[in-house]
Amino acid sequence: MKSQDIRSKFLNFFEEKKHSIVPSAPMVLKDDPTLMFVNSGMAPFKEYFLGNAQPKNNRISDSQKCLRVSGKHNDLEEVGYDTYHHTLFEMLGNWSFGDYFKKEAIAWAWELLTEVYGIDEEILYVTVFEGSDDADNLPMDTEAYDFWKQYITEDRILKGNKKDNFWEMGEQGPCGPCSEIHVDIRSAEEKAKVSGKDLINKDHPQVVEIWNLVFMQYNRKANGSLENLPDKHIDTGMGFERLCMVLQGVQSNYDTDVFTPLIREIETITKKKYGKLEEVDVAIRVIADHVRAVAFSIADGQLPSNNGAGYVIRRILRRAVRYGFTFLGKKEAFIYRLVDILSKKMGEAFPELKAQKQLIENVIKEEEQSFLRTLDQGLVLLNRIVEETKGDTISGEKAFELYDTYGFPIDLTALILGEKKLKLDEKGFDAELQKQKNRSRAASEMSTDDWTVLFDDEEEEFVGYDTLEAHVKLTRYRKVVSKKDGEMYQLVFNITPFYPEGGGQVGDKGYLEDAHGDVIYILDTKKENNVIIHFAKNLPKHIEETFKAVVDSKQRYRTECNHTATHLLHQALREVLGIHVEQKGSAVHSKYLRFDFSHFSKLTIEELRDVENFVNARISGKLPLIEKRNIPKEEAIADGAISLFGEKYGDTVRAIRFGQSIELCGGTHVKNTADIWHFKIISEGAVAAGIRRIEAITNDAVKDFYFENNRAYFEMKDLLNNAKEPVKALQNLQEENTNLKKQIESLLKDKAKSIKGALKSELQEINGIQFLAKKIDLDAGGIKDVAFELGSQFDNLFLLFGTEQNGKALLSCYISKELVASRALNAGQVVRELGKYIQGGGGGQPFFATAGGKNPDGIDEALKEAKKYVS
Ligand code: ATP
Ligand code: MG
């Protein structure tokens, strides 16, 4: 059975059981501080389980893109080494939100596997929760046991412990016992030797879990205790690639048609064969797996970057590059070439891959190239470290520096050292790594209390589109303590005018005032899933009273100018550059706006002018805001609204229109474009391959900008003695400056020459060494030139020069290579030791080294000491 058919059979089966089939949610989460990526099928439905939102249908089924590379579920290091864990994988799932429970979930799982897919019962095992005698004191799941008994013989129902059979979303939240379904796909011969029963949950590559049925019936509270959930839910997740392995009769996920096209392509490009040598196979699996994860993330709008989710993606790609570099001998970019076949094979189920193929290729190629450059530099640095090291062990500190500062992977360091017959102080490295981890853990440590609920209310309503003030009641609050912000309170109201950060727009600030005149400042507003959270330093005194909640209208207004201008900018870019322009990120602040978009070359000054003119024409055109709330997404799209990849839209959307600009948007906007007054681009540049960034300002910020520019202009003109043509005057100055520099350079060369002549005559022979220690008046470059030129005439030279420059001291030591070898002299050591006289230090190579210091008075002493090295 082809993988495509396996996927659709699953969805069709649950559709027949009255489930709504929904598309996969984007993999990168935006409104969830506890999770970076969707790591299981249930993550997009968290709000339904927590009771913060209601699904339209209480039965849902889908295939969800999951990524397990960070946090509680992190399989990254396994990937490549085993045959059944991936970074990105599809999880097939069916859900019941307070509807059916264990009986149906078990019956349907059995029916699907054995009847629809025709899997032989003989290879199946199931597990049920055995209960726990720890603090939770949970009973065994006899209910599930009794249901399973109807389908499968009891010798293949195994009891499992809390680790395997009690599923928890995270530290807090819904949880419950689960039943896993395992397959044993070993040969009859193997089975005769060891029973499958003894291999369940033992990391055997052919006895693996394929499906987990979770029975959500508890909620884990912050204090660690469990309470019963008011409604019981079903959450199931089946690994699509593992299911394909079983149904296609192969022994590895990588031998299914999900992966073989990628593997064949890697073989063609690298001219290495899969299935011959283990380390090559690992590398091929790593690359086939990682290219999927990276491509899907980019398609979802998450580009590789230096922090957060982007950094995780960058690390995945780098891991792939590293394996290609080390084990497949690929020193140039090639992973991007796999995107073509990937989008051909998976583009039907995931159209975002097809639509953005070119962008994905460009981004991956650029990332690969830049990391390969890093690897090259790292190799040079590593060689230098090797040269400078005495003995056969490289210190952990040095290796850590290479890893931390230059991004040079530690396993590569170890490998290269091994080839050179050197060792790495692994303990020292681990200690450095641990130190760094402790530092960042301390910085991000946070404790979150349980919510104190004052009264239960319907969903918190946002009224901030229509008003900046409202009378509100506190429904719940909690305290959060972190290193970064200290003690903070998070407040939730029944209704709120405060806009929570989202869609690129910053959260509102403002204050709360009670009837007694007590005021609390709201410092920020954010959304956690569906809940709007207000951040305050203190808890209000009279928590049960009604407050007047007031949004900072000035900040809101400036932000709105920037948000509306962002829409106009988006429209302008598509108009001026073409409709290949797609929004790739946006940040709307009160002071400026930032807009990232796909486009392949730098904007010309004329294009920038056209974009500005386009936006400003719409500002002076006084276009009114036309807002449609809660309309079906299809209606908005039919009107001409653009939907973005990687954005999660509900069934109904809000459409914002100014003239011909129509966007699906939850943000706040000016009532009329005339309010913006003026739009000005202040920078344009690249953020990644094929992604450009524009920063712009509006309204008062533009006035300030012009004023400051004008001021700078007049100051410059003043400095240029009020030249009529200041640009020309500046160019003349620059030219003059270049000429002067040239003259100085040639004068210095002459000086060096005459000094060299004089120095040669001052050489003193001691013990067969031409020796000189002297103070000279040249810059560092000049000294080096003189030393090396003299050096070329002798093979037994020892020079130590001292220089005073700008109140600082410099010692430079040159020793002929022959002396370094025959007399065990080392310039690096000389300057390190003599550095103490000038209160400084330095180093370099055995034949040339320098030390800088802050005490020029010590130069003479240092020069005097130098003789001891040769006598
Ligand atoms: P395992 O013990 O094999 O790592 P798990 O207990 O982590 O599995 P669940 O969290 O229960 O798995 O996820 C449900 C299903 O998703 C599993 O039964 C499996 O088929 C699949 N799955 C889990 N992790 C991965 C992964 N990294 N790659 C591919 N499939 C996976
Ligand atoms: Mg796992």
Automatic annotation (TrEMBL):
Zn(2+) binds at residues 563, 567, 665, 669. GO terms for cellular component: cytoplasm. Its main location: cytoplasm. Its cofactor is Zn(2+). GO terms for biological process: alanyl-tRNA aminoacylation. GO terms for molecular function: alanine-tRNA ligase activity; aminoacyl-tRNA deacylase activity; ATP binding; tRNA binding; zinc ion binding. It comes from the Bacteria. Keywords: Aminoacyl-tRNA synthetase, ATP-binding, Cytoplasm, Ligase, Metal-binding, Nucleotide-binding, Protein biosynthesis, RNA-binding, tRNA-binding, Zinc. Consists of three domains; the N-terminal catalytic domain, the editing domain and the C-terminal C-Ala domain. The editing domain removes incorrectly charged amino acids, while the C-Ala domain, along with tRNA(Ala), serves as a bridge to cooperatively bring together the editing and aminoacylation centers thus stimulating deacylation of misacylated tRNAs. Catalyzes the attachment of alanine to tRNA(Ala) in a two-step reaction: alanine is first activated by ATP to form Ala-AMP and then transferred to the acceptor end of tRNA(Ala). Also edits incorrectly charged Ser-tRNA(Ala) and Gly-tRNA(Ala) via its editing domain. PANTHER family: ALANINE--TRNA LIGASE, CYTOPLASMIC (PTHR11777:SF9), ALANYL-TRNA SYNTHETASE (PTHR11777). This is Alanine--tRNA ligase. It comes from Flavivirga rizhaonensis. The lineage of its organism: Bacteria, Pseudomonadati, Bacteroidota, Flavobacteriia, Flavobacteriales.
